[in-house]
Amino acid sequence: MLGLMQEWPLSCHKILDHAERQHGNREIVSRSVEGPIVRTSYRELRERALKLAQRLERDGFREGDRIATLAWNTARHLEAWYGIMGMGGVYHTLNPRLFPDQVVWIMNHAEDQALFVDLTFMPIVEKYCGAVGSVRRVIVLTDAEHMPETSLPQAVSYEEWLGEADGDYQWKALDEHAAAGMCYTSGTTGDPKGVVYSHRANVLHAMMIAMPDAMGLSSRDTVMPVVPMFHANCWGLAQATPMVGAKLVMPGSRMDGASIYELLDTEKVTVTAAVPTLWLMLLQHLEETGKKLPYLKKVLIGGSACPRAMTRKFQDDYDVEVIHAWGMTEMTPVGTLGTMKPQYMDLEGEARLDVKEKQGYAPFGVEMKVTDDENRELDWDGKTFGRLKVRGFAVAASYYGGAGKEQFDEDGWFDTGDVAHIDAGGYMQITDRAKDVIKSGGEWISSIELENLAVGHPDIAEAAVIGVPHSRWAERPLLIVVRKAGREISRDDLLSFMNGKVPKWWLPDDVTFVSEIPHTATGKILKSALRRQFRDYKLPTD
Amino acid sequence: MLGLMQEWPLSCHKILDHAERQHGNREIVSRSVEGPIVRTSYRELRERALKLAQRLERDGFREGDRIATLAWNTARHLEAWYGIMGMGGVYHTLNPRLFPDQVVWIMNHAEDQALFVDLTFMPIVEKYCGAVGSVRRVIVLTDAEHMPETSLPQAVSYEEWLGEADGDYQWKALDEHAAAGMCYTSGTTGDPKGVVYSHRANVLHAMMIAMPDAMGLSSRDTVMPVVPMFHANCWGLAQATPMVGAKLVMPGSRMDGASIYELLDTEKVTVTAAVPTLWLMLLQHLEETGKKLPYLKKVLIGGSACPRAMTRKFQDDYDVEVIHAWGMTEMTPVGTLGTMKPQYMDLEGEARLDVKEKQGYAPFGVEMKVTDDENRELDWDGKTFGRLKVRGFAVAASYYGGAGKEQFDEDGWFDTGDVAHIDAGGYMQITDRAKDVIKSGGEWISSIELENLAVGHPDIAEAAVIGVPHSRWAERPLLIVVRKAGREISRDDLLSFMNGKVPKWWLPDDVTFVSEIPHTATGKILKSALRRQFRDYKLPTD
């Protein structure tokens, strides 16, 4: 027996229709790529997205076409997303921080039909667009006045192109499972893998993150996603913010501390979100200038672990609540959020930071578990770590083209590739990447914990820990460090510093000093390169 | 092209799984029908719901079976809902305030297979259960000790019956569109009509009402739904509260001011919900005793319009925010909520009450419009009123058995039967029921506004306005009033009191004094009876 409720597909255009109807005059403030601050509204966003959808169709683009964007967070980029989705297309965000040959590979793999691009990226696009045969149209996100000379195929300025449409358009009626967006993950090994978001996943995820114990987004908030739209679906904020009708502030291309501070202050931002590196720049700027954050209430921090000192500083010096979050491109992307459950809400000082240091708990819509290598579920005791696996309404079921099949099991669980423990309160903490964990005599050692411990020494600039073959233990940890300029710490001093702070058998078997540690294009330590480099390393214990 | 996201049906048992996993120890506190306060938890709720599902199957009940409940808000009633849904059954709440022959009609129409019943209602069930042939089992929500003598078919005490199951059960895997619950609307005319909630509608509705600008429910809250589970799906709180992991307080059968106050105070309730009549009793109790509400933050008021004086009292005397809401059984049931949009958030005094007096705006998931009799959409100007029509993911598409087809149009809009206007800010205000509006010379007069105006006179106890046939204007308003005991106000004094407070042509053509106004079983004015009674009334103006 079926329920007798309405068919009301969870389509992304409904978010925009709602924002226009209920919050039409609410502002969207962008720092434009051309420079000035530009003010628009949800009403205009919808009008322009309708024109964009109509204009794309007139150019011959059709339902299911992948349309790439290579752009900063601005109202125009948002118009592009909603216009593309509204005509049944699939927005495909490209990460400008990737190497050009990776971007070319991704565009060819997705068979992108068109490209929306910011002025900033014209020089690189000029170079590699020729290698992508599928692209029939390049739309430069600017007006006629700022349009550069270009040899790109059918290149037009956005405003001229959009001006040819009248907006008399009906959103395409779509299955809620239809593809809405696409984002490739850039692993440290292997080819990038494409995640394909459905309309349904985008809508449910937006409701999920807006809830009080997630990001807690209200129409009375002013939200600034500093996290780029090209990074992991903008953490869902491009959908959740219009859904609740909050004012939206888009920081454009200027990501330095002073520029971010300026928008936080002049636009009275109440909620913002980005990776720790960005907040380091902001905190430095605040310390240099003595400025405060009187309007900001919450800062979402994810992408990599938020250092305890950062949480402390936001909380104690600026009266801003840190919400430590974890997610993955494959999860649309939010997985857990570190808001306080009732049993923790009155905690203060170090006890509060102990909770805040974890990545938080899964909201309704996300299931998680940790397992050992035999897929046996491990206890939630806050110390036993294992492979973190997830299920949910906004979690990938597969990658585009069928890559990475081994990450999905028959019960619907996705293996995140992260290693984590979960405590009795449900709070999860990432301890490592599965491929970086060191398996010593069948037991697991967290490379990240050892690295964090090593960089805690005042003479160490950066540290990496990898497993090196060992005849008795299969693998033992090798610590690779970069000393701070002018410092001369020795192997034995560093090991004594670490001694007693982790289980004895976790201590690295050796330390090697290097002048530089290799990184990926997005700034992560490239452990695969280190493993190659130290493949034949002879440990003194072996 | 489809998205590549997981199949993760929006089934109600997922709410309970999540509550158990993430908020397992969070309390459910019930005032039991037997008397004492009983404490349980989400973990126990899930364990007992699993047993209940298993036990129902063992009794031969199957997917799609309608299982009735006639019970107060207690943990046992909640276990019954989740257990019924978990085995694929359909909880069917019966309203004990209906006349027995109505309940019998409803049970026969739904073909209820079993009945969970509270001790309170045993005497009435004894009388009418024989008239419902489909019921094969009656489960009395009590233990062996309190089990009364009964002649009911296969009657058992709940605890004994449940004790025969071990809970080793897997929730039934269901289509998210499967029926989950059922509730009949008791119109003032015609037979009751059955609304059938799907799992999907229940889950989406719970997410919708938990959002910050709706009820704003957090795990840190303590929620007491005073609104009965048999009234309009408990306003969604039986799903939303476990979904967020808030502490849940269930008031059982004692609905007087002192009993409600006791739970608000001892359990430190932060959010509660009920109809205005209930809050009138609480406010009287507070005034008599001088007690305060130090823990309560928000009170949801709906079911009928919340008087301005009530909002003022909660806000000014007790520092409690009133959220005025509107909904219908057909909407799972929430339609609008009167939280403050940014442009109103700093309003104070009468200006704030002006906004709070309206029923609020539609959250994402509900679309609304007002139309004239030719289905032309009317402006959102805060004064032009018309038929209120709605669409949404938790709005009925039809009634059980195909009744009331005329309320659903081909574009998917449901005609609420209410008359309302919507202002430029999106706030809706109900002005009448469509069948009660008076159509005078093609223009509409709100019977409710005239009634509110008349009861504003200190000598008037109750007032009803109906349209009476008029040879020139088609219909003109007749005001029917009950004077307060010992008061002697005249027709002309009452009309002069009303003069100048509504458009001149709205003023009733006559006033008639009666000793009593007829009501429905649920306390609404029975205008159909008044219309019959005054069918041949001769207006002095005609």
Description of the structure:
- Two copies of one chain form a homodimer.
- In chain A, strand 12 (271-274), helix 10 and strand 13 (298-301) form a beta-alpha-beta unit.
- The termini of chain A are far apart.
- The model of chain A has no long low-confidence stretch (mean pLDDT 95).
- Chain A contains 15 helices and 24 strands.
- Chain A has helices spanning 12-23, 42-58, 75-86, 100-110, 122-128, 158-163, 199-210, 237-244, 257-266, 276-289, 308-318, 349-356, 447-455, 491-498, 527-533; strands spanning 27-31, 37-41, 66-70, 90-93, 114-117, 137-140, 156-157, 179-185, 193-198, 222-225, 247-250, 271-274, 298-301, 321-327, 334-337, 366-371, 386-392, 414-422, 428-433, 438-440, 443-445, 460-470, 474-483, 510-513.
- Chain A is globular.
- In chain A, helix 1 (12-23) runs parallel beside helix 8 and helix 2 (42-58) packs across helix 3 (75-86).
- At the A-B interface, helix 1, strand 9 and helix 7 of A face helix 1, strand 9 and helix 7 of B.
Helix and strand arrangement:
The structure is a homodimer of 542-residue chains.
Chain A lengths: L11 H12 L3 E5 L5 E5 H17 L7 E5 L4 H12 L3 E4 L6 H11 L3 E4 L4 H7 L8 E4 L15 E2 H6 L15 E7 L7 E6 H12 L11 E4 L11 H8 L2 E4 L6 H10 L4 E4 L1 H14 L8 E4 L6 H11 L2 E7 L6 E4 L11 H8 L9 E6 L14 E7 L21 E9 L5 E6 L4 E3 L2 E3 L1 H9 L4 E11 L3 E10 L7 H8 L11 E4 L13 H7 L9
Parallel strand pairs in A: 1-11, 3-4, 3-5, 4-8, 5-6, 6-7, 10-11, 10-12, 12-13, 13-14, 23-24
Antiparallel strand pairs in A: 1-2, 8-9, 14-15, 16-17, 17-18, 18-19, 20-21, 22-23
